[in-house]
Amino acid sequence: MSESPFPLEPTAAEAQAAIADEFAFFGDWSERYQYLIDLGRKLPAFPDAWKTDANRLHGCQSMVWVVPSGDAAHLDFAAASDSAIVSGLVYLALRVYSGRSAAEILATEPEYIAAIGLAKHLSPTRSNGLAALLAFIREHARAAAGA
Question: Treating both helix axes as pointing N-terminal to C-terminal, what angle do 12-24 and 84-97 enclose, rounded to 10 degrees?
């Protein structure tokens, strides 16, 4: 697996707080969308060999691929999208959840979505895709934890 920059913060809760602080800096949603695009560019390289149907996240209008690794003590997620804004959404989800234990993932609701106003500013298809990504992460954590 490629080198992951995640986790950036010691806990998922601290990651969510940092995301909320960063987005609060921007005055309007055009600036926030640009920031999302910029974040998406920071995703680690994702090998073309991983862009298979087996790794494709269904439920997204855009193409999104996710490759989980690790165990209950430490789960990593590598992901990529063919959409600039969706890549930013992927980056935020990985920032909160990748590199964490299954227990921490399962105990952490994605509060950053409401905190930064994402729910009100995403199209229905992007909202569905984000929900599918978060469900995939939680399901993988549940399986790793044996729950």
Answer: 140
